[in-house]
Amino acid sequence: MSEPDGRASGYLMDLINFLRSIFQVFTHLPGKVAQTACMSACQHLSTSLMQMLLDSELKQISMGAVQQFNLDVIQCELFASSEPVPGFQGDTLQLAFIDLRQLLDLFMVWDWSTYLADYGQPASKYLRVNPNTALILLEKMKDTSKKNNIFAQFRKNDRDKQKLIETVVKQLRSLVNGMSQHT
């Protein structure tokens, strides 16, 4: 996908509508039971979406696909903020999607200098982004930009972006290797 659709994926909207109708039926259940079911559903959805991104069968991903994925996660966050089940404190339900949100923000803004400079700091903007996760996704994007445009090497902007990706990949690998040596 080179460009996002401009709206969330149909399958995801169907799922959210299904969850919304299920949680409306839960109104007769004790509050904690309905809240636990809703939180579990959101956590499962978040985990499943992250696994889709990191799946080893997915060899390449374009920026357009990342943007589309971002639209999907925004819909999940909107669902969570709509309080599908009453009784959650503040944005508790939205926190189910925080790992995805921070990862996508990093890629959408292309904020690698902040990520690398703040890595390991308790107040880091991307505290929830694991370097290994970022590396896997970045390598899938790197492969896409190389294979999709054989003339990219002739355009300065594309060459510069490739150099930046290579530099970030090296820095992420050193973070990942540093983490594995400490465990």
TrEMBL record:
Gene3D superfamilies membership: Dsl1p vesicle tethering complex, Tip20p subunit, domain D (1.20.58.670)
Exocyst complex subunit EXOC6/Sec15 C-terminal domain sequence ranges: 2-140
Stretches of the chain forming a coiled coil according to its record: none
GO process annotations (BP): Golgi to plasma membrane transport; intracellular protein transport; vesicle tethering involved in exocytosis
GO CC, alphabetical: exocyst; membrane
InterPro entries referenced in this protein's UniProt entry, alphabetically: EXOC6/Sec15 (IPR007225), EXOC6/Sec15_C (IPR046361), EXOC6PINT-1/Sec15/Tip20_C_dom2 (IPR042044)
Protein's UniProt name: Exocyst complex subunit EXOC6/Sec15 C-terminal domain-containing protein
